[in-house]
Specification:
With 204 residues, the protein is an alpha/beta fold. It is 42% helix and 16% strand. Helix 3 crosses helix 4. The relative contact order is 0.13.
Length: 204
């Protein structure tokens, strides 16, 4: 099966989303393989404006799409996009959207650390979108991140989150001089995210 790969090599904002939308009309299957919701892809279809941050553009063309293991997923953002499209009459379901159980999750502490690091850098700040993308990838590379497959398994999720939060709260309190985050403040809403996203998980 022939495939087309769209790669951005100019530091972002090259129009990748527009290009994917253009070629998606002829595609059978579209995969987003990396990145997070730091970028926004805007397209107009029949006079309607659509802005997607996580969902592959192909969902707007009725194509089967997948979010691969290289993507860092903010579950709240993903579900909001799914709900928004469903409300507009564009059906997003496990029939046309597949989510890798190996994709890593963005948590509120990733976003907070992103913001605190930028503040600490002062005039040397990178200029991140403060959406936790970098810190989430750092956990992925450091082999301490939590994946979608963990999120939907309540027996695994709680222990892994508690272990991770010990380190995160030490970092917040001792290094950033900030307040610790209670585990349940994250656990409870994310368990609900997991229940809604579990049907989408597939061997991508």
């Amino acid at each position: 099966m022939p495939g087309i790969v769209v790669v951005g090599i100019q530091w972002g904002d090259e129009g990748k989303g527009k290009m994917v939308d253009f070629i998606s009309e002829e595609a059978d299957f579209l995969v987003r393989h990396q990145g997070g919701n730091n970028a926004g892809h805007t397209v107009w279809i029949k006079g309607e404006k659509y802005v997607l941050h996580l969902l592959p553009m192909g969902v707007l063309r009725g194509k089967t799409c997948a979010i691969g293991s290289g993507v860092v997923v903010d579950p709240g953002v993903l579900l909001k996009e799914i709900d928004n499209l469903n409300e507009k009459g564009i059906s997003i379901s496990p029939e046309n959207l597949l989510l890798s159980p190996n994709s890593h999750i963005i948590f509120p502490y990733h976003i907070l650390i992103d913001q605190l690091r930028e503040k600490r850098r002062g005039k040397s700040a990178i200029g991140t979108t403060s959406r936790g993308i970098g810190p989430a990838y750092r956990d992925k590379i450091g082999r301490c991140g939590i994946r979608m497959g963990d999120l939907v398994d309540e027996n695994r999720f709680r222990p892994r989150l508690e272990t991770q939060m010990e380190y995160i709260n030490d970092l917040l309190v001792d290094f950033f001089k900030d307040a610790p985050i209670p585990v349940d403040e994250i656990y409870e809403p994310y368990v609900e995210y997991g229940k809604r996203l579990k049907p989408f998980l597939s061997d991508v």
